[in-house]
Structure formats: structure tokens, C-alpha cells
Amino acid sequence: MAHRGLRFGIFLAPFHRVGDNPTLALGRDLELVSWLDSLGYDEAWIGEHHSAGWEIIASPEIFIGAAAERTKHIMLGSGVTSLPYHHPFLVAQRFVQLDHMTRGRAMLGCGPGALVSDAYMMGIKAEDQRRMMDESLGAIMQLLACEEPVSMKTDWFELNQARLHLAPYTYPHFPIAVASATTPSGVLTAGKYGVGLLSLGAGLPGGNAKLAEYWRQGEAEAEKHGKRFDRDGWRLVVNMHCAEEDERAFRDVARGERTETLAYFSETLGRPPMRSEDPLGDGLKAGTTLVGSPETIAKGIERLLAYTEGGAGGVLFRAHEWANREDTLRSFELFARWVMPRFQGSLRMPAESREWCSENRSGIFGPSMGALRKAFEDAGQEVPDHMRLRLHTGKVDL
């Protein structure tokens, strides 16, 4: 990685309103990932959903394969693969293949399944989803270790001397993270297996206040199982829109955010737990939604990181279509230009170089004017007026 400090990226569910051409919407999602790759974003996590009309990507793996051919550098992960919906052997096999085909740019995000309607259609009980995720991830981690053949049996899958066709391209395996939203189960599972954490709850009202508490729970769980819980693998997921001025940013998103809240989260999903009636207003007050100028956004990220009481490895922005297409793409560009470098250590050297030149300009650039004047004189030509040195209060004035 060319920079140090925070990684930045998106969490692409995606969110497309019903009535929009779904074929074109998927094309825009691919276009967005390509745009982020060109801007230097680090990661894109792609969701898996099967119902409710808005979040229309059913296979993160297919999307990742297509996006990998259109990009060069950005890491591509599932955000998330709903583990109870798949046999763990097939999940491991597919992501090992992606790891090879992307030359190490694939990541596996794991979750129990966010939409209860998905699980309902497959006959999976909501109360079983988190247990099934834990069991599946345990099997996947054993398979990726590529040690002894894996045999295990649960009430929903079985492995008989199973081993992977290929070892992962990335040693010891590609990045893995578990999603955590409204309950501590995700962070406990991440700690148990010593993998990364996707804190979706950071973008919900009140969620940022629990970040440090949940992290400590994960550390305790990791210690219990002899694992290491690394903050570098912790990503905070929040809403963001950036414009040149705060007022412009608010105007960009107000209508689209309200449409999403009413049409999807209220009328379709019945407002899930922790989802407020005014998520934009409440999120702005709580610091879980970042809308404004680059300066406002940067301060918001600093406040968000302070809640972690020790920092995190990355910040992901929930990809949405609150603003029109042009303003959405512009938002990511403004962030990449004016906010991202502040957190990645890429501004210090240019600033120090500029300051050095400014402080020493008389001694450095003054003699060069004499050299230029001599060049004209040696050529037998008159020195232009704008290149003549003038004495001003005893100092050379360029």
C-alpha cells in the first residue's frame, strides 16, 4: 500500500429505489467501483440480498469478478456473504478462486443475513442465523488453514474429510471480517476467530457510543480463544456526502435521503431496530452521518475515531443515491482530494517542502536572478526589466 494510516472505501449494499432500471443500476455500481479505484480508494465491500426490491445484488462473487476486470488496485470484498445461506465448503472454494483470479484483491465479509425476508424464503429461522454463521465461519477457517482434512456435522451442513482444491493465493489467507450491526454477536464471533470487524452499527443513531465497549468485548473473546484481535482489521461504516460547502451538501442529499428512509426502511422494512424516524437529522447530531464540506467531514471522522478509544484500520461509506449521479461521484472525488490525504500521511512532505522554499527564498532564488541576468549579458542582449534585481530596504526584492 502506497500510503499509511486509515483505509477508505465503500459498503455497497446497494440501495436503488424500486422503479429504477435494475440493469442500469448494476452498471452504475460497477462504474462507481471503477471511479473509486481511479481515485485511490482502498476497498469496496459488496452486499448479498435476495428480497425487498432495493438491494439488488444477489451474488457478491459475480460482482467482484466483474469489478476485478475493470479495476487495478482496489480490494474487493463481500459485504457480506450471508453464511447461513451457503454450504461453508463452497464459500471457501469460491473465495479462494477469487483470491487467485484477483492476485490477492479478494476479501470475505461474513454475516448472518440482514434481511429476515431472505431467510424466511429459505426456511431459515431468525433465531438460528447467528449460530449458523458461527458454525460456518469455524468450518471455513479450518478449511483455509490447509492442514488436516476437515470432518464435522451440524444440523444444516456436513463435511467429510473435506479439503480445498487450492490453497489461498494470499498467505495465510485473504482478509476476513465479520459484520456487526445492532447486537454484540458479530464482534464476539470476530474475536473468537481473530478476524476483522465491519461495524455497521457505527452509522446508526447511538452506535458510535458503543464502539469502544464492543471492541473490548471482542478483545476479551479473542483472548479466551487464544486469538489476536487487531484494530487494523476494524472498519467503521457510516453515511457520507461531501460538497464544497455545508449548505450545498445538505441540499444535495435531503430529498433522496428522505425517499430512501420512507420508501425502504419505513414502508418496506417497517423501520428496523435502531432506525430512527429522522436518520439524517439524528445522524448529523450524533456524528454517525457525515454531510458537509471537506473540513466538516474531516472533523467528523476525527470525532468518530475518538469514540473507538484507540483507533481503527478503516472507514467505509455506505454507498447510497441520496444525491444525483454527478454530485455523488463529485462527493467521492472531493473526499479523495481534500480529506483522505489528511489521514494517510501524504501531506506532510509537500507542506514541509513548500515551507522550506518559502523561508529560504531570498537566499535560494535571489542568486538565480543574477545568473539569468548574466546569461542575457553574455549573449549580448539587454536584460528584461522584469528580471532586473532591485534593492529594497537593503534586501533583494524579486
UniProtKB/TrEMBL annotation:
Highest taxon above the source species: Bacteria
UniProt keyword annotations, A-Z: Flavoprotein, Monooxygenase, Oxidoreductase
All residue ranges annotated as the Luciferase-like domain in the record: 7-310
GO cellular component: cytosol
A molecular function GO annotation: oxidoreductase activity, acting on paired donors, with incorporation or reduction of molecular oxygen
Family under the similarity heading: Belongs to the bacterial luciferase oxidoreductase family.
Protein name per its UniProtKB record: LLM class flavin-dependent oxidoreductase
Organism: Siccirubricoccus deserti
Lineage, top ranks: Bacteria, Pseudomonadati, Pseudomonadota, Alphaproteobacteria, Acetobacterales
